[in-house]
Amino acid sequence: MTSTATTGRTVTHFPMLDESELARLFHRRPQPIPVDSDRELLATALGATLYIPAIRDGLVSLVERAAAAGSVSIVIDLEDAVPDDAVTAGLHAVVTALDTLARRGGPLLFVRVRSADQIDALIAEMTTGADILAGFAIPKFDSSCGRDYLTRIDRASDVVGRRLYAMPIIETPDVLHLETRGDELRAIAELLAEFRESVLTVRIGATDLCGTFGIRRDPDLTIYDVHPVASVIAAVVNILGRRDGTGFVITGPVWEYYNAHERMFRPLLRNTPFKEIDAVRFRTHLVSRDLDGLLRELVLDRANGLQGKTVIHPTHVNVVHSMCTVSHEEYVDALAVLGVDDEQAGPDAAGDIGGVLPSEYRNKMNERRPHRAWAERTLTRATVFGVTRPDVAVIELLTAVVDR
C-alpha cells in the first residue's frame, strides 16, 4: 500500500553534523531510512517523537525548525494539549499545517486525536495534507475503544491509497490496576494482532498513569522509581513486546522536565567521563537542564526493552538520538552473536546459531542463542542511528549535537 507520496522519501538522524564531524564520530554512519520501510525499521527510526500542541502559533514553522534541528517524528496533539473550547480551532490548524507541509516536505508527522471521529474529519478536510501524514496516535487506548480507532485508520489508509499507521497509547486505569491488568493487556494484545500491519509502535502514557494515583514524578527520579507505573511498563513489555513474532516495538514514556530546579539529591552524572574529554562545563550544562535524569531514564528504558521516547521539548530530541546510537563494543558483539561480518551488517543480518564465544573486547561472553534477539535489534538500531568509533564515547556525540 504505497503511493507516490512516500516513494523516495527518507528520514536521517543527526542532519546538523557536517562531513568532518560524521567521519570523526562514526564507524558506521546513520543511514537514510525510507518512510515506506518495514514496520520495525521505521518504528526504530522514530527515535525521539516530539509532541507539539495543535494550537501553537506558527505551527508549520515549529515543525520545520524541529526537523532542521534533528526531529524525524512529530506528533501534533489534538488531545490533552488543546483546551475543550479550542478543539475545532485545533482541528482546522492541523489540516492547514499538514496541507502546507505536504508541499514542502518534512519529518514523519502523526496526529494525536481526542476521539475516533476526528480521524474521519481530518481525512475529509485535508487536500494535500494526507501526502505527509504518517498516521495517528491513539490516546487512552483500551480493548473497548481500540477497534473503532483502528478500523477508522485502516479505512483512512484506503482513502489516501497507502498505509497510515496507528500508535496506541497505553494509559488507562484498567491497565494500571492489578485486578484488571492481565485481562486487559491480553485483550489489547488480541486486538492489536488483528491489525498488526497498521500498528507501528505501542506507546506508554506515564503521565496519565501517574495521575490516576495523584502522583507526579520528581525530576530527580526516573519513571522506574515510581513503582506502580514501573510495574505497568514491565507488564506491557511482557505481553506486548515479545520477540516471538507476536510483539511490537514499545516506546519509552515521556520525560516532562526541561529547566533547572532545586535539587534534593545529587546529580546522576559521574564527573570522570567528562573530565576525560575536558567537558566538565558541558556536564554542568546537562545538569542545569535536568538532562541528567533524562539520560539515566534512557538507559533504563533500553534495559527494560523499550526503544525511542516521547519528548515535549526540542532540546531533548538529540539527547535521545545520541543515546540510541550503537557503541562499537555493542556492534562487534552483535556481529559475533549473529555470525556475520561488518560488510553483512544490517537489520536482516543472520548467520550461525548456537555456541559461546568471548567478546572481542575481552570483557564478557557472547552466547549466540540467548543473545540473538538482542543482536538483531542492535543491528537495526545501528542502521538507523549509526555506530560510534571505538574511541568515541556517547558524551562526545552529546557535545556535538545537544542544543545545535
TrEMBL record:
Q: What InterPro entries does its record include?
A: C-C_Bond_Lyase-like, Pyrv/PenolPyrv_kinase-like_dom, Pyrv_kinase-like_dom_sf
Which cofactors? Mg(2+)
- What domain of life is recorded for the organism? Bacteria
Q: Which GO terms describe its molecular function?
A: lyase activity
Q: Which Pfam families match?
A: C-C_Bond_Lyase (PF15617)
Per UniProt, the keywords (alphabetical) are: Lyase, Magnesium, Metal-binding
The protein depicted here goes by the name Citrate lyase beta subunit
